[in-house]
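Two folds, back to back.
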Amino acid sequence: MKTNKFSILLSVYFLKYIPERTGYSSNTTKAYRDTFILFFKYNKEALNIKPEKINFATINRELIENFLFWLKTDKNYSESSINQRLAGIRAFFRYVQMEAPEYTELCNSIIGIKSKKIPVKPMNYLSIDAIKLLLSIPDPSTKYGIRNLALLTLLYDSGARVQELADLSKNDIRIKTPTTVQLSGKGNKTRIIPIMPQTAKILKLYMNNTRWFKFNDFNTPLFFNKKGDKLTRAGIAYILNKYVSIAKLDDPEHFCSAVSPHTLRHSKGMHLLEGGVNLIYIRDFLGHSSVVTTEIYAKSNPEVKRKAIETASQNMLPQKMYSKREKVDMEKWLKDMV
């Protein structure tokens, strides 16, 4: 029986290479795994090719491009989701390139498939007044009210991703002053985030009044459900949406857009930027791999852009050297650059 090198390399990739050689998070690993499950499904449904029959002889750039097109037309995937699937395929073929150089030409052709261009949407975030209203709704005198208040307050104050919050254990919180939380982000990178005194007070109240913490070790999930299991991303989103629905009734103007856990992360980043915090510090606070990602906050905030334009104009436009028309043209150019 002829050896199927594709099957062998794919198995080794997921069973050994990713766990032992990469820093991929569990979410990234699952996303890459699901990509190939979908790829097998496409071959079976659209081409009548069984998974065990797929090999390097049957794979080419056109097949991958047709698979991505199938995701869009048959499965109604968004362009961003298709790009995520393409990223998983590229990652595997970069691995193949290292392990089996004889397939370099095939790998290069697939790695060279371009991602879909996605229009940049305005960043959705809440004002400080909206955050204050949202956090005023949970009742701290009740068992779940204090849990939900601690959860939402920490989600905003730390700028955590929802999965980072879900993965927190009791051991990740340092209650003593200065209070901090240790977050484990993408690529299993950790960062220590300072917590504001108000948030520390709420967390201390929550932890001191939750009997579960007294009878379990430090690895106990910080936020858990009735069964004692850690809250899922969906569970956290459900809690947030419950209070957002109430807040909308009081102030629909500030809650006109959809609010997700990531909205609170965006809000914290924006409020730090509006407070004059340097982009480099915001990058480290939010755990971005590059300041380029953090710059999106500056580009999405009209007030920050206005201040940048005014500052640049003062520094670069000597009043007596430019006509009024030239100043308008220069400011327009600066606005496009910021």
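---
second:
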Amino acid sequence: MASVATRPATRAAPSPWSLPRFEGHSATESVRQIVREAIVDGRIPAGDQLRESRLVDMLGTSRGTVREAIRHLVQEGLVEYRMHRGVFVKSPLLRDQLDVYVAREAIEVWAARTLIERSDVLDLSALDEALATMRSREARQKRPTEDTIAADLRFHHELVRLAGSERLTRAHETFAAETRMLLRRHPPYPWRTYAGDHQQLVDALRRRDPKTPDLVAEHLRLSARLLRGRSADKSEVAHAIAD
């Protein structure tokens, strides 16, 4: 009887990935989030230095963890290295401030266009909740309160989230954080129409108005114009002092 050749047992192809199980935030990510939130909500003001030794003492973690968390914040654009001086919370130049609004406009106009083209019912309740905060007595102060600023950015971030792109939602989160820092030093905004301007956007979304993307763009460009105007005013003052 002829012998039957046996094939060697086939081995499963090795997995291209070998990753540990995710057990929650790493120490670096936790430190990044803590410092990031303190910067965004103003507890660490623009221009302040982030000293590693101070953060190590305050947070009870290693210098390496703090250094890595700061590196991520530098990549995000919230802090900056200054040669031979250390790391500081960024004080954006005018062109950086305008860049934030250019980037937001690109994402939010896309989101508005996506939403008005959809056929399903839009859940705009989160936008309505943000509007309620903007209509409060605090929102009618000369300068925006932290609650008003947060409501404003929740409104715009929810607009992007509803459009369904996780990638663009993450990108917009970074721009929203920078905007929150900018709004504390924002030129006077016509607060009498503050909530009304946002209500106009909600109403346009509800009726799927094809002009909604243009309304969103103009809404953001108003802030850019105010920023440019403030810069021009400061320039005139500087020239007057020099003369």
